[in-house]
Amino acid sequence: MNEAELRNLMYTAQLPETNVPFVIRYPRGQGVMPQWRTPFEKIKIGTGRKIRDGQEIAILTIGHPGNFAVAACTMLATDDLYPAHYDMRFVKTTR
Asked: Is the pTM of this model over 0.70?
């Protein structure tokens, strides 16, 4: 979703205890965080994160489109609509 999230995913992927296949889609183009040099944080593999609390409906995103959802939630609030927003972070495929 942003440079800090990418850094944390890359950090988590290279940790010795990460013993599962790990794929990161590296974005192209411009970033969204002017101050992207944040401390590294380990991310629990397979977990998402709640970006915003909401009522009655939720928006689920993965990656950069989450930034569009943040803007949409702000716009919807002007019409008294308050969707929750969750960044799923991980996609799991089955065999």
From this structure: yes
